[in-house]
Design a protein that fits this description.
Shape: elongated
Oligomer: single chain
Structural class: alpha+beta
Strand order of the largest sheet: 2-1-5-18-19
Length: 753
């Protein structure tokens, strides 16, 4: 008998191996089916499936001013997912999705056989349903990818997929998938991905954009256009070819779309809040109240009174003011050089460059060259030059300022014809500041800036910093005096004085900031000119304990010692509580509790909590009006008067605050509707500078913010809102001009016969 040929013997032996492997694979699968069926999750739990969604913070106009999320997701319905995107995903990931029962048995079998033969992981093509099972139940399915454990995971995944297919329709499965999976850069779900990469809702995606998003799915962190445009384009083109093969588009359509570049319109980083200090204060409160999971995944909606336009004005005014003051103290050498860090100029990337850079932005930039008095810089994909006028404020030569590799701040100017922008050299200010704006009638916080940069420091100086208030305390002294029968025309004495403060203590001898004395002076002028001596003398006359009752009535809770020096600001307070106290004056003595937010609702719109304005009748309405008019005089004839405040042409009142050693500069002012407070100083108490008063340091920032408000309200109102005068406050024409009095306290004016 003729012996069998070698190739027949090889087939016979290999067949035995194949049968053995299949038997082994089936045995393993059978064992797993028996052993792990009870460990699989209850698929019915998906009936109430609610993936984690973004919690949003809304401003008073309904715009989004902040977000909390571990996964950036917006849940959409099947109808919100356009057909072009559904077809792209199915073509790229699972072309038999509409017909299979949840798994590809042949592909899984081949992967199992190859795993046994090669003893290494074989990529098996998971269906969309299997991918969803893995995403929804990672703990139950497992995480292992190789060896026996990997094969067990694959079988568990298949079993869960079969259960999902049995319970839910294809539309429901695809919708859950499109809302669940990751698309890179912390975007989860098709809606978040569409907005992140193309700046539009998913329902508006074009064919090429849909193919780009679908193409990312195997490895979104590597295949997204922000990570690699080349890889993203390659995957998009693959998806377009698959769509043509499946008949969703024609070959010509695929070819035409592949010829186009991918144009992104979103941002690779999460949007930056316009009010990060307020949003962070909210986060702390609400996380304590609701827990981290609910806050970051619950899709809450938090309504605030934040006025976006006023917030932007506050940020810009504070930033410009601090930079102006900081520049006056000279240029500081850059503290970082990437070449010294053994990095190359071409490879360096800064996180800020991941966000859009617009004209007028101040951004980190890398110095690439300094030549002939011109500094060349790069900020992401942008390049720019800084000519002499852009660094003239330093009063130094370009070569003395920076060198290649230095990381500096640059204000981006308009691009020239060659695309290179003209920049200005900047530096991050060391000086700090804070701003708060409050609605007088509701207590809603309209704007909040807690520092020069939230990225550098999250310490909220508007709320957390207790600083000496300086002359801001004087109105409390004089409102106590008015309640005791004094009037704006009462004569006080601005002369050198000495007070005995107790045994063994040196006498207290207050001084005016200009070290001059004006002698006899009316109460009005003493406050308008912020004279120290008359205020201390009044504190002595009334008694410190009685005066301190007034800031307490107005909501100030920071401890206030019963010292005479408190009259001129030795006590401390926060900007928020001081601004809130002043807001009662133009509101007829009624202070509203500051409101960080007004309402919280869950993702279904159910109200979880609601806060209405909480009024406190703090001081008498007539006293409040008299103090308001006195502070109006400060703006007309006193420390708040200058060309810029006069140009407002709007009824306002306010008060400067300056400490003796110039460590703190304040200004708090108001109109009939809002009160704005500004504080400037260093975190470590040290002088801001010579003669750095509330008038020169804080008032210009306040004026800029108030101007933005006034300009808007002038367009919205038929006339400026006036301070409401109580019926028992009368006007008397005195020798100094019209003056306001509480009825019965007015002077007797002798008329000529």
């Amino acid at each position: 008998m003729t012996p069998p040929s070698p190739w027949k013997r090889w087939i016979a032996r290999f067949s035995v191996v194949i049968l053995f492997v299949i038997a082994a694979a089936l045995g393993t699968a059978g064992g797993v089916l028996v052993a792990f069926t009870d460990d699989l999750p209850a698929i019915s739990a998906l009936d109430d499936y609610s993936p984690g969604t973004i919690t949003r913070v809304l401003g008073r106009d309904g715009s989004v001013v902040g977000e909390f999320a571990t996964e950036r997701r917006q849940v959409v319905t099947y109808e919100d997912i356009p057909a072009v995107l559904r077809n792209a995903i199915i073509s790229a990931e699972d072309d038999e999705f509409m017909t299979h029962g949840g798994i590809h048995p042949l592909l899984m079998g081949w992967a199992a056989v190859n795993d046994v033969l090669s003893r290494r992981r074989t990529p098996g093509r998971s269906t969309i349903t299997q991918q969803l099972a893995r995403q929804l139940f990672p703990e139950a399915v497992g995480f292992e990818r190789v060896g026996t454990a990997g094969r067990i995971r694959k079988i568990k995944e298949a079993l869960v997929a079969l259960q999902i297919e049995k319970r839910y329709s294809k539309q429901e499965i695809l919708t859950m998938y499109c809302n669940k999976v990751a698309w890179g850069n912390r975007a989860f779900g098709v809606e978040a991905a569409s907005r992140l990469y193309f700046g539009k809702p998913a329902k508006e995606l074009t064919l090429g954009e849909a193919a780009t998003i679908a193409g990312m799915l195997p490895a979104p962190q590597r295949f997204n256009p922000y990570a690699s445009m080349e890889a993203s384009t390659r995957r998009r083109n693959y998806t377009l070819d698959r769509m043509a093969e499946e008949g969703y588009i024609t070959r010509d359509e695929a070819v035409a779309e592949k010829a186009k570049p991918i144009v992104t319109r979103g941002q690779p980083a999460a949007p930056q809040s316009i009010a990060p200090y307020l949003v962070e204060s909210l986060r702390v409160q609400l996380e304590e109240r609701y827990g981290a999971k609910t806050l970051y995944e619950g899709g809450l909606v938090i309504k605030t009174g934040l006025d976006p336009a006023l917030q932007r004005a506050a940020h810009q005014a504070l930033d410009e003011g601090l930079r102006r003051l900081d520049k006056a103290r000279g240029f500081r050498k850059p503290v970082r050089n990437v070449i010294e860090e053994k990095r190359t100029l071409d490879s360096f990337r800064h996180p800020r460059w991941n966000r859009e850079i617009a004209t007028g932005d101040i951004v980190p930039a890398l110095v690439t060259d300094v030549e002939a008095g011109v500094i060349r810089v790069r900020a992401g994909r942008l390049t720019g030059t800084i000519a002499k006028q852009g660094y003239a404020w330093t009063k130094r030569r370009a070569e003395e300022l920076v060198k290649a590799g230095d990381l500096v701040e640059v204000k981006v100017g308009k691009a020239k014809t060659d695309g290179v922008f003209e920049g200005e050299l900047e530096q991050a200010p060391l000086l700090e500041g804070a701003v708060v704006a409050i609605d007088n009638r509701t207590g809603a916080i309209l704007a909040m800036e807690g520092g020069s940069s939230f990225e550098r420091s999250q310490f909220n100086r508007a709320v957390q910093a207790k600083r000496q208030v300086g002359s801001l305390f004087k109105p409390f002294v004089y409102m106590a005096a008015l309640d005791k029968g004094y009037t704006a025309m009462s004569q006080l004495d601005d002369s050198p004085v000495s007070f005995d403060v107790g045994p063994g203590q040196p006498p207290y001898e207050p001084k005016n900031y200009d070290h001059e004395y004006k002698g006899p002076i009316t109460l009005r002028r003493a406050l308008e000119l912020s004279r120290n001596v008359p205020a201390v003398a009044m504190m002595q006359t009334l008694g410190p304990a009685q005066v301190i009752e007034y800031p307490r009535k107005l909501g100030i809770t920071t401890p206030i010692p019963e010292f005479l020096s408190v009259a001129i600001g030795a006590a401390e307070g926060t900007l928020l509580e001081m601004t809130s106290a002043y807001s009662a004056l133009p509101n007829q003595g009624v202070r509203l509790t500051p409101l960080l937010f007004s309402e919280v609702t869950d993702r279904e719109g159910n109200i979880l909590e609601r806060h209405r304005p909480e009024p406190h009748e703090s001081i008498r309405a007539d006293t409040a009006y008299l103090v308001t008019e006195l502070l109006h005089g400060v703006m007309e004839h006193g420390t708040g008067a200058n060309a810029n405040t006069a140009a407002l042409k709007w009824p306002v009142g306010g008060k400067t605050g300056t400490t003796d050693d110039y460590t703190d500069a304040w200004f708090i002012g108001f109109d009939a509707e809002i009160t704005i407070g500004v504080w400037i100083g260093y975190d470590q108490k040290k002088p801001i500078g010579s003669n750095a008063t509330g008038t020169t340091v804080a008032l210009p920032i306040w004026t800029s913010i108030m101007k933005s408000w006034v300009d808007r309200r002038r367009q919205e109102l038929p006339a400026p809102p006036e301070f409401q005068r109580p019926g028992n406050v009368i006007v008397v024409n005195t020798a100094a001009g019209p003056e306001f009095f509480i009825s019965g306290t007015e002077p007797i004016i002798k008329r000529p016969n």
